[in-house]
Hints:
Rossmann fold, five-stranded parallel beta sheet
Amino acid sequence: MAYKLYIVDDEHDHLQLAYTVLKRDNYEIRIDDSPKAAFKDMTNGFRPDIIISDYQMPTEQDGIDFVKNIRTNEKTKDIPILVLSGHSCEPEIQRIMEAGNHHRTYYMTKPYNNGGLIEKVKELLEHYNPKTKNSQN
């Protein structure tokens, strides 16, 4: 059984890039440009092993609100979240961590190195789902 990832970003090019980079490792991946739609999908039964979300989304909900919603819902509260952002200043990172209650919430700066994204996802999967899925080599 493959690991499941959910990628949420309002910019189609960023969604496609992350999808293409991570699909090489045979993950089951869902993508969405709407945080609200992704959240609804997850609360209606799709349970990803990791959520990868953009930070700054000028849609109906930004990354901070998305993370808060995930952390306050019983079905999604323990899913690890990797937030991607073009902001690398300490106050922005702190806002992300606080939104996630410092619980299973991680941060990566964009633009990211493709290999760095792959390694971070593998690291989180192995930490939170050790030996529970088939190897992703």
